[in-house]
Amino acid sequence: MSKNLIVFSLLTIFLLVSCEETLYKEPQPGGVKEQKSFPEKIRGTYITGDGDTIVIEEKQVVELKKTMISKNSPYVLGDSIKLKKYKHYLFVSYLADNNYWSTILIDYKQKGYLHLYQIDPKSTKIKALKNITKVEEFKDESGKTDFLLLNPSKREWKKIIKEEIPQIIETYRKVGD
Length: 177
Prior knowledge:
Layout: H1 2-17, E1 21-24, E2 34-35, E3 44-47, E4 53-56, E5 60-64, E6 75-76, E7 81-86, E8 89-95, E9 101-107, E10 113-118, H2 126-132, E11 135-139, E12 145-150, H3 154-162, E13 167-175
Parallel strand pairs: 1-12
Antiparallel strand pairs: 2-7, 3-4, 3-13, 4-5, 5-6, 7-8, 8-9, 9-10, 10-13, 11-12
């Protein structure tokens, strides 16, 4: 739930800040079983430092902005939003307009917090990423990078995480208990 909301919130923020994005050929990580619901231990209400709130339920996330409920909310696990668990991360993949997937990694091992990560195509760590997995670069009409396309294996994800290539994009703190 929180992951879907987080994915959409972060995806929206990320796309507004940069035309470039990192996309995937399939929900990530490939070869990992899809989860049908959010883990019980992360369900609840979370808030950012800016006061935006998400409510994670069994199979959906509701996003509450400081002034309104997000018009795209709730985000429900299904055909266009996939949830997978690998190592100590939850991977939330959202089907983008071009039929590729955008993915957010959620680290939930710190009790009461969700830390969201994404691979930034402008990062100085992209060179290291290219040494781990194949990276396809797609350009727009003007020749500027539009997006990067990846399809890392589980083994490659292990290296990507170890090299700290995904960068933190948001932290949510659990409210109450």
